[in-house]
Each structure stands twice: as C-alpha cells, then as structure tokens.
Amino acid sequence: WNALYAEYEKQQEMRKKAKLDKNKEQRAEQGKSKNKEQRDHYIAVFQKHFGQLSGEVTFGFPGWRCSWVYSHNSGQIIKTFTDPEGNEFKLVNEVESKYGRIIELAGSVPPDLAEMVRAGKENTKAHALFSVGTPKAKAVGGTVELSAEADSLDEHSHLIRRDVKRKMLERQEPKRYAAAADYQAWEATISQGGSEITRIKDALSERGFPKAVELLLVAAGQAANGNRYEGAIAGIYVCRGEDQFDRPCYQKVAMSSRLPETVVCQDCYLYWRAGDRRWEIG
Asked: Would 250 disulfide with which of 128, 141, 237, 272, CB 3.0-4.6 Å?
C-alpha cells in the first residue's frame, strides 16, 4: 500500500507541475509572465523595433477595442484592451511583452505584426476617439466600450453601460426566472431606509459586515404583477464585493423566520454577465 500511495503522490505532483508549466507558458504567450526579468526583456525587444507603445496606438490596431470602467471604490478608470481573438490586456506593457516574445521566437519582425503596428500609428481617428473614453466613463458612472473602427462616439453609443450602483438596472431578461413578457418590469434601486432594511443592516453588522454595506432593493413593476417567480426574485440584496471587471455582485438576503434577529442568505444572485454584456438575476 505504501508503494502504491507513493506512486500516486508522484503522479499527482507530475500533473500539478505540468499544469503549472502550461499556465506559465500561456501567461508568457499573452505577455503576462510573472517573471519580471523575462517580461522586461520581451518589452525591450518590442521597443527596439517599434519604440514605446501608447494606449492610443494600441487602440488603433485593426479589430481591437477598449473598455473604460469607472470604479466607485477608488474613483479611478480601469482600461482593458481586447484584440480580435478576445484576449484582454490591462496594460500596454502586456501587449509589448506578447509581441516582443513573438519577434524573438521568429528571429525577426513578422510582416503582419509590422503592418498592425503601422496601421495603429496611422489611425488618427482612433487616437482622437480614445481620448473620449475616460471622461465618458466618469460621466455615466459605469462602463464605456469602443471599437477602433469607430469614427465617432455616436456610432457606438449603444455600448455605453450604466452602473447598477448609480442607475436603474438595464432591461434584460433575468436568467432562469421571469418570462420574456415580464423582464422589462424588474427594477433595482439603492435602498435608503425602511424597518426591514434597518434590521438586515444591523444583523449583517453583527456578522462582520461594514455598517455602510450597500443594500439593493429589487422589486417588480406593474408589468410583472402576478408573475409566479416574483417571490423568488423580489427582495433585498447585499453587495458581496466586485468581480474581475470591477462590477458589483449581489446576493439576496432576508431575516430568518425561525431565529430572532438573524439574517440568512438565499440562493439568488444579481451579477454582471460579461459574455452577454448584461446584468442577470439567477
């Protein structure tokens, strides 16, 4: 048995190492290596051929887009560049590192890379549009996403998002619960008072939540009157933090019917679904 278990542990360690090596290689391919020396080397290789890359030029690459997300916690704007394959880059240096690695492995600058950088530098319309992202994200208190092919902000005004902390929840069909005819009736608003809310805040505080914890009241509008899932969706939701896109995530809570002054969490969430670019309840 000892020999078999030792072999099992050996195989587990080998699989773990293989997975770590694969993740390391994938990070390096995307310019996100945790090895600073290696990352800086690839950045230097890229800059040797093209000079230092700017946000405006990166945004101007053919098929690329950028999102600007306003953070309510820090008041800062977080930019994310996305290439045509859907790969995301938080920093321009990550782009330089990725393509610097490609140059080194190829032994020279691939023609398609040279053309991409040239097009990015010459795309003056994209450069001008790039400067609009930060002030617009601050103005809407949420997210603005633009494509490098846009000639003006108006062409992509439908991509301007409103943050649920500041605005009414965008009208989308809640996942799993409401019927299509009812989805426009759901609203989310910041809760300011009420005895039930006060009790929930006090109970959450007892469990270690900050006194200023954000609560969201989700209620059914007139169009959803009588919807069979109203009881499952409507109620009070507590902010449980933010996701990787700096979007808040909420979980439904209520006072326990059996334990006095005790708050219980329910299996219902309000969250941002990045793939579909919409808020969902499920």
From this structure: 237
Query: Which residue bears the tokens 């449980």?
Result: 240
Give the model confidence (pLDDT) of 113-147 as tens digits.
999 999 999 999 899 889 888 888 888 777 888 88
Rounded to whole angstroms, the Cα distance separating 206 from 204 reads: 5
- What is the H or E stretch that residue 217 is in? strand 215-220
The two tokens of residue 212 are 């200023």
Query: What is the DSSP annotation of 234-278?
Result: -EEEEEEEE-TTS-EEEEEEEE-SSSTT-EEEEEEEEEEETTTTE
| H-state helical runs in the chain | 2-29, 36-50, 55-59, 92-106, 111-122, 124-140, 195-206, 230-233
User: Residue 130 corresponds to which tokens in the numbers above?
Assistant: 């790039």
Question: Residue 96: CB partners within 8 Å, gap ≥ 6?
Answer: 31, 42, 43, 46, 47, 52, 53
**Cα–Cα distance measured from residue 259 to residue 265, given in angstroms and rounded to the nearest whole number:** 13
Tell me if 71 sits within 8 A of 126, measured CB to CB.
no
pLDDT value at residue 155: 37
Chain-centroid distance of CA 14 in Å reads 33
Q: Is the pLDDT of residue 219 over 80?
A: no
Instruction: Match 């950028």 to its residue by tokens.
Output: 66
